Write the structure tokens for this entry.
Amino acid sequence: MTLSASLPLLVLALLIEAAFGYPQRFYAAIGHPVTWIGRLIGALDRALNREAASFALRKTMGVLALALLLAVAIAVSALLQRLCLSFGPLGLVPLALLASTLIAQRSLHEHVARVAEGLEQAGLEGGRKAVAMIVGRNPRTLDEAGVSRAAIESLAENFSDGIVAPAFWLGLGGLPGIAAYKAINTADSMIGHRTPRHLAFGWASARLDDLVNLPASRLTALLLVAAAALDRNVDAGGAWRAIRRDAGKHRSPNAGWPEAAMAGALGLRLAGPRIYGETRVEDHWMGDGRAEAKAGDIRRALALYRRACGLLWALAALLAMVTLI
């Protein structure tokens, strides 16, 4: 698929997902493409990741598992894309519907908004319950500020790897591009951890995920800076200064960019030391503002996110028009 076809596909997919999301009745009936990918990853993990094997062999098996996963994802999506495009220009509509299932603008907004609602309506316990649905850290260790920061950090990071990165690879490679990206990203979330079982087996997935997210994380930060420049209630200059000062200090090569931009724009400090399960993770702070975030700050972050999504649509539409000229 050429850029002159994949970019209009991207615009249509973004608008469809923003308007409708992924209906809950579909999820209840047939699951979701990411859950299907996850089942395949789980099967490969059980079949190829043998605890008795050497570190080197488990690392090799992890590379093989990733290759098999990508082969399936690309082959199936390429077949579906070819089938849709066999109907001519009208085939972009069902193709965009398929692609929209791998973007998460609407669901991310809904999940983060529930944290603000939980804090506002049911206090700390309501916020903890809602934030536990979107972050891996131990909610019992979080006070109101911790819950609020966790929600905002999740919004910033997932804007990059749940929306901008899928959009980037959809625009570049059509349905196979976004399917390959989601396969890599899901593999990283499932087996890319530094645990005894997955340190070797998940090495390839974690490293490749870092690589494919690199361009989108920088683009996400720029979108947030641009969105901040359109909002008098946030600080675009602060966002830019936080990116330049703090983004490279994050333990993740990518997450620091959107988190620093969000922190600087809102006048907050994000990231920093956190507890996942029973493990304390030391990390640098992003931003130099206040750490005492509240539900109102989550609302401000969501407003900034909506503007940044709008800029992403505009950028995709502009690029689509340029390629058609």
In short: The mean pLDDT is 95. The longest strand covers residues 274-276. The longest helix spans residues 144-191. Residues 67 and 204 are 10 Å apart (CA to CA).
